[in-house]
Amino acid sequence: MIVAFSVSPAASDDTGSVSAAVAAAVRIVRESGLPNETSSMFTSIEGEWDEVMDVVKRAVAAVSEASPRTSLVLKADIRPGFTGQLTAKVDRVEEHLRQA
């Protein structure tokens, strides 16, 4: 499965930034050892249900340390039997673009 999620504290620091809290979440994802990518809006992670959801839960907990209220947006692509889809899905789209 691939999960794309965004986690952020509801309250920013005194400069209006949430980047330190988000970095704590991204650090947990990267240290998980699961395939992952981070963009300006979401972090995507690929693995089995339990391991992915454990990482998301720990990322939320890390952000929650910075704020009493936390926002989580999550989208999942659940496709049993498929791995390596974090990049393969994008590769297939790029192939179609090259052919057009």
UniProtKB/TrEMBL annotation:
Belongs to the UPF0045 family. This is Thiamine-binding protein. Residues 3-94 form the Thiamine-binding protein domain. It comes from Rhodococcus antarcticus. Pfam families: Thiamine_BP.
